[in-house]
Amino acid sequence: MGTLQQQKEIWVLGSTGYVGAQLTKLLIQKRQEGVFPGRISTLGHRTILPWIMQRTNFFMSSLGKLQRQKFVDYPPDTVFHCARLAGKTDRGRRAAAKRGYQANVRLRTIFENLPIPPTLVYCSGTLMYGNTVAMADEEQHLSPIAYARAYEYAERPFTAEAKGTILDVRTARPAWILGSDSWFEYFFYRPALASGFVPYYGDGRQQMSIISVEDCAGQLLHVSTHGNKGESYNLFGFAPISQLEFAEKIGDVLGLDVRQVDEKELVKKHGKTVAEALTSNTPVTTMHSEWKDSYKAVDRNLDLLIAKTVKVLTERS
After folding, report:
1. Mean pLDDT score, 49-78
2. Which of 7, 56, 85, 95 could form a disulfide with 100 if both were Cys (CB 3.0 to 4.6 A apart)?
């Protein structure tokens, strides 16, 4: 799309979600700094974040009901798609994926028929690659596991089925996103406080690629300004690490030992989908070395990132 200075309107779909809110915060910061002079239009559904409603051109709507006229009235230069329809069970996720697919077909048609179609950055995930032996770059064959099985279907209008579209679609695949919410809080931090041990799942040898939520937002923005049409980009911040090593780093911060939670125990407590995700082996790299090297990271040290995240969670509780 070019520099932020050249853009008049940026949309964030899913602006009140985990990644979307962080991206919206970054865009507001860029606007305050004078780097981005345009308007930020945002879409949220159910979750209310007053600071987003006050500082952006905010619309409360489900993804499938957002009216075409909004994009005509506020024509986007760039759209960040961070809106993923969720479900609490496998059946619920499959149903949500079908709704998401229909919504994305409709959105793609809307964008294709605007006077000037926008650049679209679609936020996906690295679970799309499945379990890999070697580090996966963007040419790795997709073999989705766990939550990604349902999500992959919803994404198709902007991924697999977008090959012939006139749109400039760029797919971003974040690795494990580390922040004071989501999987880190619910599967590592809280269980550690409750049991007195930091858990690691399965045999602990599975490799994790990790990125901070701040750098996830930053790299998403970098995809829009420094990426190329039709390309996919793996978003990560550090070299892969085994889950056992990761748990030990958390233990060093909390002053706790680690404990194995075997796969049977994990399935019994959280179900097969969660177990498959937490025991997955998906270390990633990128074939876009120039793109990656041109990004200035916020978090460069994993130990400090873990300590910072634990500190936020501790102060919140």
Report:
1. 96
2. 85
